[in-house]
Hints:
By secondary structure, the protein is mostly beta strands. The protein is built from three helices and 34 strands.
Amino acid sequence: MTSQQQWKPGLTHIGSQKQLFLDDYMVESVADATFVMNPAVKYRDNPVIRRDRPWEGNDLHYGTVLYDPHEKLFRMWYGNLHYSATERIPKKGVPSVANKVSRGTCHAVSEDGFNWEKRPLHQVEFEGSTENNIVAPESWLAFKGGIFIDSREEDPEKRFKAMARVTREGGDVGDRDVSDPECEHSDTRFVWNLYHSGDAFDWTPHEKNPVIDLPDAMWGPTGMMGWDPIRGVYAAHMENCVNKYAFFGPHMCPLFKRLIGRAESPDLVNWSEPETILVPDADEPDVEFYSMWAITYENMYLGMLWNFRKTSMTILPQLVFSRDGVRYDRRYREPFIAAGDEGDFDSVTAYALQPIVHDDKIFIYYGGQNWRASEQMDVLLDEFGEDGPRGQIGLAVVPLDGFVSIDSGSHKYGEVVTRSFVFEGQALQVNMRGAWQGWGAGHPELKVEVLAADHTPLPGFKFEDADVLKENGFANVVTWKGSSDVGSLAGRPIKLRFYSKNLKLFAFQFV
């Protein structure tokens, strides 16, 4: 019989899909081990993009980072702002704030993701020269959702896509009550235009622009996900509440908190109304969700959820994940990228962008700042002048699959038993790493026992047959008395029992 013929309803059929230990979806029991979130590790030479050109301001802000497999380069677009200490402007509710001047958007490239070059673009003149990396305004059309590579596009001249948010005055914006005193911007609305490009510099507008012209499309900070292969749609995640409150009144945002929504499209032209998918809970009364950048990863969704703490005025990312793209798990509440120390460029904010999987690492770029509120800006300006406020681009790195692990101690075997499943493949691989280093920690150890659905150890795959794995590895092959062949078990219901010491166990996969 084939594995498909032997599969029975009610069993999980994992095929050869990698299984991550983000949660207990595939776990029946755990003994003497625990789930641990592994925060991203900041690059030792952060920031990777810092102010070192005369045309760059004191706030280099996030824009877009992607890996271009055609050019074999990482590419980055970053905002270039300057806050002046010598000129203050009045603002509603605030005596005065620093004058903000945009110096445009800049572009940089990297071969390895760590070391970046600001190659001259010869597009914009600065102080009589075009020897700079400033992007021409027509090459960065207020792409609020970022630039992405369309994995479904067959025409190389259209492989880059981007959405530009455009503010329009007047016109019909649905059922807003223009007489409502809370509706301060009753003559303003947002629409979104779609563009395509072959090089991400020369952009062609879509003939049906604006492609998003919904009555209440007042989306806040937005991350365009691109193609979602799990749900089979294009997707965008946005702040889905406070902007609507500001423009339409309280009936559009009854919680009056920043929330995350998701909109979908089969073709980047016809979009659904956003559905709110993430709402702060009662345990964190000062938390709001500023934005979320998400990717699909091993048949799951991983998101960098920007937690805005209103009491401390900080924005730091939280790791969230989902199996259907709508119901997200927030069990790991600590920041996935920690704030820097006082005075560091990222001591207050870390606007984390979408993770980029490259070889055996996962790169997460973020815009770091040492201020968030205008009051913080004013203090920095008063104490340090224009060199006080700083915003630069940082990098944090996660090993492949390394978001969450099941960790065991050094003195006895921890045990993890999976739920019953059916697989396809000839060998079992595990992603593992030693949990602790230093004197007395010992080598990591892993043995794997294969069980029948009723927990009976299978002959030839028992504990005493299992060879010990001791080396760190992303794809360590499990063996029993020297043999890795599990093909005879393919298609039948089994469980795995992992015995581990001093180990971080991240994932397993049949290949």
